[in-house]
Design brief:
The complex is a heterodimer of chains A (466) and B (481).
Chain A lengths: L1 H19 L3 H18 L5 H21 L14 H20 L5 H19 L3 H21 L8 H29 L10 H18 L7 H8 L2 H25 L8 H16 L5 H25 L8 H24 L4 H4 L2 H4 L1 H15 L5 H15 L3 H26 L13 H16 L5 H10 L1
Chain B lengths: L1 H18 L7 H19 L1 H5 L4 E4 L3 E3 L2 E2 L2 E4 H20 L7 H19 L3 H10 L1 H11 L4 H34 L16 H17 L8 H8 L2 H11 L1 H14 L1 H6 L1 H20 L4 H22 L2 H32 L10 H4 L1 H15 L5 H16 L1 H27 L16 H19 L2 H12 L4
Antiparallel strand pairs in B: 1-4, 2-3
Helix pairs in contact in B: 1-2, 1-5, 2-4, 2-5, 4-5, 4-11, 4-16, 4-22, 5-6, 5-7, 6-8, 7-8, 8-9, 8-10, 9-12, 10-11, 10-15, 11-16, 12-15, 14-15, 14-20, 15-16, 15-19, 15-20, 16-18, 16-19, 16-21, 16-22, 18-20, 18-21, 19-20, 19-21
The chains are: A mainly alpha (466), B mainly alpha (481).
Chain lengths: 466, 481
C-alpha cells in the first residue's frame, strides 16, 4: 500500500504540475514580481539586476505562451484559444521597449509593470466574465500607480494619475453593473449571452467600460492628460499594451454578444478619428500631440473591431487588428521614445533638426509618416487592412468619414516633417547618452519604413494565428 | 527579376547616395552613375521592343495573402515611359550639376525614379498603389527643401492635394477588388483580371473615383490647382521630373487601368472625358496667356498639353490613342527642355519673370536657338514632335466628335499666342528699362550637350515617328473601339 499511495501522490503532483504548465506564463511573471520585490527588500538595488529579472520573467512568460498548445480549457476560470498567443505577444511586445530602456532607480516601477503584464496575461486567458473583470483590475491598478510615479520631466503627474484612476473606476463600475445584469439574465458568468434585452444591456454596459479603457470619444477626456503627464516612455507603454488590453476586452465582449451596440462601434471609431484629428491640429506640445495621435489610432481600432464583428467575429478575421496593434507598437513606442531621447517638447525645438541630426530626423519623419498612414510605410498597410475589412462589411459612410479624418490628421503629421526639414533654426535638444533608447527609435523607424512594403509579414502573422 | 531590378536598382542607388558622404564619396557622382546604369538596364531590357519582336514582358509572382501578388509586367507603352523616366532623371541630375547640394537631393531623384518605375510596371493593384504613393514623398522633399521662396506652402499643397486624389484611387481599387470577389468568390488584385460590372450605381461611383484619382495627377481642371504652385516653386530639376514624368502617370492610369477595367463605363463616359480634355486645353492655354512668370506659364501650358493626351485617348480610335501616347513622350521632352532652360536662366539671374529679361539673343544666342526650337516643338510646328502627337490626337477625335476636335484646334492656335510672345519678350524684344538683370552668359558645354540630348529626339520623332508608334502600338491596340 505504502509505495502505491506514494506513487499516487507523485502522479497527483505530476498531474498538478502538468496542469500548471499552461499557467507558466502567469507564474513566471508572478515569480518576476516576487523576485523584484525581494531585491527591493534587500536594499542593494541595482538597476541592471532589476531589469535583468524583469526581462527574464518576461522571456519565460513568452516562452510558455508560445509552447502552449493552442486549444483547451485549463480550468473553469481559464482557457487557451488560438488568439491567446497573438494577444500575449502583443501585450509583451508593447511593454518590452519600456522594460528595456526605462531608467529604473527603484524596484517599485518594475514590480508594477510586471504586475500589469500579469493582469494582461490573465485577461488573455480568461474563460468567463468574472475572471475578465478581475484581470482587468489587476492590470489597471498598477498602471495608475505607474503614471503617478513616473512623471514627465518637471511636471507632477498626480493630477493625471487621479484623473486616470477615476476614469478607470467609472469604467470598472460600468463593467460591474453590466456583469450584474448579465448574471441576473443568464444566471452565470459565462461569455455566452442569451440575447434577452437585459443581457443586451449588460453587454452594452461592459462594452462601454472597454471603450472607456480605450479612450474612444466621448470617453476620451482622461487620455491626453495622462499621456502628456507621464514620462514619454511610459506613454509608449500606455498607448500600446494597455490600449491593446482595452481592444482585447472589447473584442471578447463583441464576440459573444448579440447586442445591437455593435453597429454603433464603426460610428464611434470614425468620430474618435475626426475628433482626434481636429483636436490635434492646434496642439503646441509634442507629447500632447502624440497623445491625440494615439487617440486617432484608437479610433481606427474601434472601427476595425466593429467591422470584424459585423463580418462574423472569426479568428482569421482578427488578423488586420493584430497586425495594426503589432505595427502600432513600433510606431507609437518609436515616436514617444524619440521625445524621451531628444527632450524636444515644442514645435520650435524641432526646427533645423534635418540639417543638424539627419539620422534622428529621418527616424522621426519615418515614424510620423507611418503614423499618418502614408505608403509605403507600415502604417499604411495596417490602416489599409482595417479599412478594407470595413469596406467588406459595407461600412461606407464611416469609411468615408475615417478617410477624411486621415487626411485632416495628415496636416499635423506633415507639420512635424516641415518643422524638421523646411524651417530654419537650431534644434533645442537635450541629448543624453541613451544607447538603448536610440536603438529602439532606430529599429522602430526601420520597421515602420520598410515593413509596409512586405506583405510577406502578413503571411507570417496568418501562420501564428493558425 | 529584370523588372524588379527596374525599380529596385534606383532605390538601392538612392540608399548608396545617401550613405556616400560617410565614405567620402561625392554624392552627385554616385547618383549619376546609378542613373546612367539604370538607363542602360532599361535600354537593354527593352531592346526587343524596337524591332517589334517583343510585345510584353511579365513577371508573375505567387499570391502572398488576400490575393495580393508581387507581379509585374511591361508592354511597349510601359517601356517607353520607363525609358523617358530613366532618361529625364539623368538629364535632371546633370542639370543641377554645378549647384552645391546635399546628398539628400541626389538621392531623392533616384528614389523618385524607382517609385515611378514601379507604377509603370506594377501588375498588382496593391503594389501599384504603394508605388503611386511612394512617388509623393521624395517630390515633397524636393519641392520643400530645394525650391524657391514659396516652397513650403507649395510642398504641403502638393502633398495634401495629391494625397486627397489618391484616397479616391484607393476607394476605386477596393471597389474593383470587391466586385471581383462578389462575382467569383476569389480575392484578386491583378489588373488584367479585375473588371467592373457593366451597370449599377457602385460601378459608376468607382469609375468616378478612378477619374478623380488619376485626374489630380494629370491634372484635369478643376483639380489642377496644385500644379502651378508646385511647378513654379520646385527647383529646375524637380520641375523637369514633375512635368516630364509625374504628370504622365495619371494618363498612364487611364490607359492601363481605367479603360480596360470599365469596359462599359469607359465607353459611355467618352464624350465626358473628351469634353473635360477640351476644357483642359482651352483653360490651360488661356491661363498661360495671363502669366507673367516663365515657369508658371510653362506649368499652365502643361495642363493644355496633357489635355491633348486625354483628348486623343478619349476618342478610342487608333490615331487618337497613338497620338495621345505619343504626346506623353513629346510633352516629357519639350517641357523638360523648357524647364531646363528656365532653370539655366534662373541659375544665372535668379529671375524668371517675363519682364525681367529682354534681348537675350544678343547675349546668349545659343540659348535663344535652343529655346526657339523647343518653343516651336511645343506649339506643334510640323517637322517637330509636338505636331505629330497633337495632329493624331485631334484627327482621332474628329472622327468621333467634330465639335470637341474643333475646340482642340483652337487650343493649338492659342498655344502660339502665349508661347511666341513669351519667347519674343525674353529673347528678341527690347530690353525693358525696368529690368536690371545682369549680363547672361551663354550656355557652356554641359548645358548644350543636355539640350542636344533633348532636341535630337524631338526632331527625330517629328520626322519619323514610326518606330515609336510601333513600340506603343500593340499596348494600346486592345483599347481601340
Amino acid at each position: 500500500m505504502e509505495p502505491d499511495s506514494a506513487r499516487k501522490e507523485t502522479m497527483n503532483s505530476a498531474a498538478l504540475f502538468l496542469r500548471l504548465i499552461p499557467m507558466g506564463s502567469g507564474i513566471s511573471l508572478f515569480c518576476g514580481v516576487l523576485g523584484v520585490a525581494f531585491v527591493g527588500i534587500s536594499k542593494k538595488i541595482s538597476a541592471g539586476l532589476i531589469r535583468t529579472l524583469g526581462l527574464l520573467s518576461l522571456a519565460a512568460a513568452a516562452a510558455f505562451v508560445f509552447a502552449q498548445p493552442a486549444s483547451g480549457v485549463i480550468s473553469s476560470l481559464l482557457c487557451a484559444d488560438a488568439m491567446m498567443k497573438a494577444w500575449c505577444g502583443v501585450f509583451y511586445a508593447g511593454a518590452l521597449p519600456f522594460l528595456l530602456a526605462g531608467t529604473w532607480t527603484d524596484e517599485v516601477s518594475v514590480l508594477l509593470l510586471l504586475g500589469s503584464l500579469l493582469g494582461m496575461t490573465f485577461l488573455a486567458f480568461s474563460a468567463n466574465l468574472l475572471m475578465l473583470f478581475i484581470s482587468l483590475e489587476l492590470l489597471s491598478l498598477p498602471v495608475y500607480l505607474l503614471v503617478a510615479l513616473t512623471p514627465a520631466q518637471g511636471r507632477p503627474s498626480w493630477e493625471a494619475a487621479i484623473k486616470y484612476f477615476f476614469a478607470g473606476s467609472v469604467s470598472a463600475a460600468f463593467f460591474l453593473l453590466g456583469l450584474a445584469c448579465h448574471y441576473s439574465a443568464t444566471g452565470g458568468f459565462a461569455f455566452a449571452g442569451n440575447g434577452s434585452f437585459l443581457d443586451q444591456t449588460a453587454f452594452s454596459l461592459m462594452a462601454l467600460a472597454a471603450l472607456f479603457k480605450i479612450g474612444a470619444v466621448p470617453w476620451h477626456f482622461w487620455l491626453p492628460d495622462v499621456y502628456e503627464a507621464s514620462e514619454p516612455m511610459l506613454s509608449g507603454f500606455l498607448s500600446t499594451s494597455v490600449k491593446a488590453a482595452g481592444v482585447f476586452l472589447l473584442m471578447r465582449l463583441v464576440e459573444y454578444s448579440q447586442a445591437s451596440f455593435v453597429s454603433l462601434l464603426p460610428a464611434i471609431g470614425a468620430l474618435t478619428m475626426v475628433f482626434a484629428a481636429l483636436a490635434a491640429l492646434n496642439q503646441q506640445r509634442l507629447q500632447r500631440l502624440l497623445a491625440y495621435s494615439s487617440l486617432g489610432h484608437a479610433g481606427v481600432l474601434v472601427l476595425g473591431v466593429g467591422a470584424w464583428a459585423l463580418l462574423g467575429a472569426t479568428e482569421k478575421g482578427a488578423l488586420p487588428i493584430f497586425f495594426y496593434l503589432f505595427s502600432y507598437i513600433f510606431m507609437s513606442n518609436g515616436a514617444f521614445f524619440f521625445l524621451e531621447l531628444t527632450g524636444v517638447s515644442q514645435w520650435s525645438d524641432l526646427r533645423g533638426l534635418g540639417k543638424k541630426r539627419p539620422v534622428l530626423a529621418f527616424c522621426f519623419a519615418a515614424l510620423a509618416l507611418s503614423l499618418a498612414g502614408i505608403p509605403p510605410t507600415v502604417g499604411f498597410l495596417a490602416k489599409f487592412l482595417i479599412f478594407w475589412q470595413a469596406f467588406k462589411a459595407g461600412l461606407y459612410v464611416p469609411l468615408i468619414v475615417a478617410s477624411l479624418a486621415t487626411l485632416a490628421a495628415l496636416a499635423y503629421y506633415l507639420r512635424i516633417v516641415r518643422e524638421m526639414y523646411f524651417e530654419e533654426g537650431s534644434p533645442n535638444l537635450k541629448l543624453e547618452k541613451m544607447p538603448t533608447v536610440n536603438l529602439i527609435v532606430s529599429a522602430s523607424a526601420a520597421y515602420s519604413a520598410i515593413a509596409g512594403f512586405l506583405p510577406w509579414i502578413l503571411s507570417a502573422f496568418q501562420r501564428v494565428l493558425g | 527579376m529584370i523588372l524588379t531590378l527596374f525599380w529596385a536598382f534606383p532605390v538601392i542607388g538612392a540608399l548608396f547616395t545617401l550613405l556616400s558622404p560617410a565614405f567620402n564619396l561625392r554624392a552627385r557622382w554616385v547618383s549619376i552613375i546609378c542613373a546612367a546604369m539604370e538607363l542602360y538596364i532599361v535600354l537593354q531590357a527593352g531592346a526587343g521592343f524596337w524591332g517589334g519582336h517583343l510585345a510584353s514582358l511579365s513577371e508573375p509572382g505567387k499570391i502572398l495573402t488576400y490575393g495580393i501578388s508581387y507581379s509585374f509586367s511591361m508592354d511597349g507603352l510601359s517601356w517607353a515611359l520607363c525609358l523617358l523616366n530613366a532618361f529625364l532623371t539623368v538629364i535632371a541630375l546633370l542639370s543641377s550639376w554645378k549647384q552645391d547640394l546635399s546628398a539628400g537631393f541626389w538621392a531623392s531623384f533616384l528614389f523618385l525614379e524607382g517609385a515611378v518605375m514601379g507604377v509603370f510596371l506594377a501588375q498588382d493593384f496593391f503594389f501599384f498603389y504603394i508605388f503611386w504613393e511612394a512617388m509623393l514623398i521624395p517630390m515633397f522633399f524636393i519641392i520643400g527643401l530645394w525650391g524657391s521662396e514659396n516652397r513650403k506652402h507649395a510642398a504641403i499643397k502638393f502633398f495634401l492635394f495629391t494625397f486627397f486624389g489618391s484616397l479616391f484611387l484607393l476607394l476605386g481599387i477596393l471597389a474593383l477588388v470587391v466586385f471581383h470577389h462578389q462575382s467569383t468568390g476569389v480575392w484578386s488584385w491583378d489588373m488584367d483580371i479585375l473588371r467592373a460590372p457593366n451597370h449599377g450605381l457602385y460601378a459608376i461611383l468607382a469609375f468616378a473615383a478612378f477619374v478623380v484619382g488619376f485626374g489630380v495627377k494629370i491634372p484635369l481642371v478643376p483639380i489642377h490647382t496644385w500644379l502651378p504652385d508646385a511647378h513654379t516653386e520646385a527647383p529646375a530639376a524637380g520641375s523637369i521630373i514633375l512635368a516630364g514624368v509625374l504628370l504622365k502617370v495619371g494618363v498612364y492610369g487611364f490607359l492601363r487601368v481605367l479603360l480596360p477595367a470599365f469596359p462599359e463605363w469607359g465607353m459611355k463616359s467618352l464624350p465626358w472625358l473628351g469634353g473635360l480634355a477640351a476644357i483642359n486645353v482651352i483653360y490651360g492655354a488661356l491661363s498661360a496667356m495671363a502669366q507673367m512668370d516663365l515657369k508658371r506659364l510653362i506649368a499652365y501650358s502643361s495642363i493644355a498639353h496633357l489635355g491633348f493626351c486625354v483628348l486623343g485617348i478619349a476618342s478610342r480610335t487608333a490615331q487618337g490613342l497613338a497620338g495621345g501616347s505619343l504626346q506623353l513622350i513629346n510633352h516629357g521632352l519639350t517641357t523638360g527642355a523648357l524647364f531646363l532652360m528656365v532653370g539655366f536662366l534662373y541659375e544665372r539671374t535668379h529671375k524668371r519673370g517675363l519682364a525681367d529679361f529682354g534681348d537675350l539673343v544678343s547675349q546668349a544666342p545659343i540659348l535663344t536657338f535652343f529655346f526657339g526650337v523647343t518653343v516651336f516643338a511645343s506649339i506643334g510646328l510640323p517637322g517637330l514632335n509636338g505636331f505629330v502627337g497633337e495632329f493624331m490626337s485631334l484627327s482621332g477625335m474628329a472622327k468621333v466628335s467634330l465639335p470637341i476636335a474643333v475646340v482642340g484646334v483652337f487650343g493649338v492656335t492659342i498655344a502660339a499666342f502665349y508661347l511666341l510672345p513669351a519667347f519674343q519678350a525674353v529673347f528678341l524684344g527690347e530690353r525693358n528699362s525696368a529690368s536690371v538683370s545682369p549680363r547672361v552668359f551663354d550656355l557652356d558645354f554641359r548645358e548644350q550637350a543636355l539640350l542636344w540630348l533633348l532636341i535630337i529626339p524631338m526632331i527625330v520623332i517629328g520626322l519619323h515617328p514610326g518606330p515609336l508608334l510601333n513600340i506603343v502600338g500593340p499596348a494600346i491596340g486592345k483599347l481601340i473601339l
